[in-house]
Amino acid sequence: MNPPDNAKQFSSTISSLILEGIAQNTTGDVFEPEEGGAIEVTGSPTEKAILDWGIKLGMKFADVRLKSSILHVFPFNSEKKRGGVAVQLSDSMVHIHWKGAAELVLASCTSWLDNNGLVEPMTPDKMNEFTKSVEDMAAVSLRCVALAYRLFDLQNVPSEEQRDNWKLPEDDLILLAIVGIKDPCRPGVKEAVQLCTHAGVKVRMVTGDNIQTAKAIALECGILDPNDVPGEPTLIEGRAFRALSEEGREAIADKISVMGRSSPNDKLLLVKALKNKGHVVAVTGDGTNDAPALHEADIGLAMGISGTEVAKESSDIIILDDNFASVVKVVRWGRSVYANIQKFIQFQLTVNVAALVINVVAAVTAGEVPLNAVQLLWINLIMDTLGALALATEPPTDQLMNRPPVGRREPLITNIMWRNLFVQALYQIAVLLVLNFSGKSILQLKDETVDHADKVKNTFIFNTFVFCQIFNEFNARKPDEKNVFTGVTRNHLFMGIIGTTLVLQILIIEFLGKFTSTVRLNWKLWFVSVAIGIVSWPLAVLGKFIPVPQISFKDYIVNCYSRRKGAPEKLG
Length: 572
Ligand SMILES: Nc1ncnc2c1ncn2[C@@H]1O[C@H](COP(=O)(O)OP(=O)(O)OP(=O)(O)O)[C@@H](O)[C@H]1O
Ligand SMILES: [Ca+2]
Fold this sequence. Notes:
about 575 residues; alpha/beta; Calcium-transporting ATPase, cytoplasmic domain N; Rossmann fold; Calcium-transporting ATPase, transmembrane domain; 3 domains; three-stranded parallel beta sheet; about 15% strand; elongated; binds adenosine-5'-triphosphate; binds calcium ion; translocase; calcium
């Protein structure tokens, strides 16, 4: 739509009324530099667009503002979707201007102003014509705003003390103009929506816009699929959603993709319904009225530039560049942090389980433990501080965006992690216990003194244990992939930490024996330690062929048990 940008196309009555409505009924501002130069317009995007149009029509903002004085203002709000102002003209006439969502304002119009400035009654035919043009504009994703006004008797205007409570009359309006404002889908949004969908994140649009406008925009940015024409409840009006019972809302919440003409409370209702159904909900918003939904959501994302302070305060994350595409980054990094914590836990639990079992079994059976306190301290250091640094700093990978999101009730330690853990821990326990009990014969230490042979055996167990961890640290990087080495050389911190651990381990065994009660090992024993450690790599690959149930182990066992109980005839 190309709006008339020349006031000469209308009669002077119309243009002065339109300009009055634009200049007086606005929360924006126009600044005209005295020494010339570009005119500056401020306000919300909708306000700016309308003021810009006024300027094109030849509006002298300051002059128009002086022509009449404002008696009372009803600020635009998202609930009513209109804003009004009462102005008094020099001839003691009062004009009440309204500006708001087109079809809502149109519904209050009983007449319209024709091209010559004559007031014509709003016949059903004319009403249909206007409604049709609103629909046509909405269908090409224009946001429609109608300007209307009415006359009012100065005598009926409440006195100044009572004016604060004055409810501006909003019926019997005379339609002045309907404008269609293009709010184009920003570059990158379509791709971002696609990425989110691919990652199992459903993008929904809840907007105050007309449902047709909302539908057109949703099609443009890929929230709706152009191949299937959606109907309710995929596409729903805020009013219809609001009218449902709580159960009714929960029943359709999943299917909703676009909600049009919604009030801020509808956003909140949708968030609540989705949360009740067990979904994890993220909400983006900018306005003060978005605050309750941002607060209620699991993750509230406020816009950094256009967002109000209230919205920012109610949110968890502030998107500095106001770009929806940044939401993809949030998902990516969020998943990466979660995955890294899982990797670390898998690694740490393996070490703990193995060390614990080895020492307990040895203590109970032989009364002696192979790993002493200082050695355990060093092992703890490897896995706690260094392990955390190495595994938790893995940068996000594209793979993270190929899998579905983690459910609200999904356990932190997945079945896959338990499987990996058991495979490695069992291997380590088996090897080290065998070494503990028959190590002296296996390592051919029979000729040594008992004391020295014990020390060599224990040092060897300690050294092998540490190497098992060093190699298993690579496995921990990719709990569910067979190739655990992808991208490892790019993670310099990981490589650095593995290197440091290796160097420190050599120093400990070769030079700090007094401290850890170890002895030097010959190169053969070093070699065997490394060989035992490296077996954890192929073992991990083999382990990944073991299938695991999709549901959690606990549920799996409960299910098996109840299935048995439920089918006693088969048991008998
Ligand atoms: N400043 C305004 N003056 C009059 N009407 C407006 C104004 N801003 C928006 N509207 C109308 O109200 C509708 C938007 O209502 P609302 O502010 O509840 O929606 P929203 O989704 O929060 O939109 P926004 O993108 O502006 O944040 C628009 O479709 C438009 O018709
Ligand atoms: Ca808003």
